[in-house]
Amino acid sequence: MLNAIKLPDSTGRLSSYTLTGTPLTISKGPKTFNRVAFAAAHIVVDPLKGGDPSGAPIIDWDRTLAFRHHLLDLGFGIAEAMDTAQRGMGLDWPGAHELIRQSLASAKDRKDAEIFSGCGTEQLDPAQARSLDDVVTAYLTQLHAIQKLGGRIILMASRALARVAKTQADYETVYARVLAEADQPVILHWLGDMFDPALKGYWGAQEFEPALETALSVIANNQSKVDGIKISLLDDGKEIAMRRRLPAGVKMYTGDDFNYPDLIAGDAQGYSHALLGIFDPIAPAASLALEKLAGGDRQSYAKLLAPTVPLSRLIFRAPTQYYKTGVVFLAWLNGFQEHFVMAGGAQSMRPITYFTGILRLADQAGLISDPERAVRRMRQLLALNGIENA
To answer: What are the strands, taking DSSP E only, across 96-161?
Structure first.
C-alpha cells in the first residue's frame, strides 16, 4: 500500500503503520475568530546557498514568505522572528531584521495581515553586558529599527537582562525605559527557562510568585504601552493566576503549547488569546477550531484540537528548546519546503523515533495533507538513519 510504512519504536523494533487520517480541508475566504490568534512562524533555509551550519543561515525567501501567507489565509496573525524562527538559535539580529522587513513588505497590501515582530537584545553578548544601560541600548536598537519599518513589537525576554539585573527593580527600570519609546502598545513575552535555560530567574526571582509580582508591576506602571503579555511557562495554573490579575484591557496571550485548548476556550472568569509556536504545524486544525469556537460550538472546537495536544506535547517535549525541529519536519512532510535542513543544523537535534511519533500523531489529527508524499519523505529520512523500507 502506498500509505503503509514500517516505523521503528524506542527499542528499534519495526512495525507496520498505515496512514488512515482524513486530511483536514479549509474553505477559502475570510475567517471569523473571537480570539486574537498569532502563529509564530518558522523559517525555510536555502541548503544550496549557505555555508557551514555554524554560520548565519541563507533564507529561502519565496518559501518562507509563502508559508506566512498560508497562515494569514487561515486567519492567523504572524508572530515574526520569534524563537520558532530559531531566533537566537541560528537566526541572529541582522537576519531577524531582514526577515521582519521582508515579511512586512510582502503583506503590505493585505488588509487582513496582522504582524507583530520580536524585539530582543541578542546582538549584545550576555557575557559582555556590563550595565542596565547596555541592555536598554540593545533593546532600543531593535525597537527603533522595527518601528522604522512600520512594525509592531513583541518585547522578548532578554538573556543579557537576566544576567545583569540584580533586583526586581532593575527589571522595572529597563522595561519602563524601553516601553517609553514604543510608538504603539506592545506584547510582552515571559519565556520560561524550559524554552531557554539562560532565562532562569527572569523578573529577578527563582520562584513564580515574586516573578509574577514584578511582571504585573511592569504592566501596571506602563499600561498604556502594553497590549498584552504572552506567557510561556507550560503551566496552565500559573497562566490563569496571572490572567485573573491583569488590568482591564490588557490581553493574556497563551504560549502554553501543552494546555492551549482549555486556556483559549476559557471559562466564566475569562480566557486567553493565543500566540503559539504550535499553531505553525497545526494551523488547519486550529483555524477550523477557532471558527467553531467563535460560532459557539465548543464541542466541535474541543474535538478538533483534542488530537493535536499529544502531537504538541511530543513536539515540545524536553529539551523543549529543540521543538523547532518537529515544526520544520512537519512543514517538510506537508510540502511547504523540499528539504529537511534547518539553520544551525538543528534537524539533527532529535532522535529518529521522535519523527516517527510525529508522523503517527499528525496523521491521527488529520494534519498530513498528502499521505503518499509524507510516506515517501519519511522513507527518505529513515534510510538516512539506516532503516530501509522494502
So the answer is: 115-119, 152-155
Q: pTM of the entire structure?
A: 0.96
Whose cell is 477557532? That residue is 290
Block residue for cell numbers 521582519: 100
CA dihedral 52, 56, 62, 66 (to 10 degrees): 110
The Cα–Cα gap between 249 and 253 comes to 12
- Mean pLDDT for 279-292 is 98
What are the structural domains, with CATH classification, of the chain?
A: 34-305 (3.20.20.70)
Return the DSSP state at 8: E
Report how far residue 188's alpha carbon sits from residue 41's, in angstroms, rounded to the nearest whole number.
18
Sign of CA dihedral 259, 260, 262, 263: positive
Question: Three-state SS for 249?
Answer: coil
Between CA 142 and CA 98 the distance in angstroms is: 12
Residue 80, beta-bridge partner list: 117
Per-position DSSP letters for 168-228, written without gaps between them: HHHHHHHHHHHHTT-SS-EEEEEE-TTT-GGGTTGGG-SSHHHHHHHHHHHHHHTGGGEEE
- The residues, ordered by sequence, that sit 6+ positions from 131 with a Cβ below 8 Å of its Cβ are 164
pLDDT in tens, 143-183: 999 999 999 999 999 999 999 999 999 999 999 999 999 99
Sequence-separated (6 or more) residues with CB below 8 Å from residue 351: none
